[in-house]
Amino acid sequence: MFEFDQYLGFLAFLSILTIGFWLMIFLLTFMIPYWVGGSIIEMLKEKREARKAKARQE
Fold this sequence. Notes:
membrane
């Protein structure tokens, strides 16, 4: 059915595919919400600083 080198190639393909799948799942479940949350916090800080600067000018 399979020669030994074909079997090793198939195992390498499955390993790379599985690693890619889990990295994608990790990225979608942990990194993207962390990035979005950090962006929102930074945006709120900038708005707060702008409001404080405007209050100091008046």
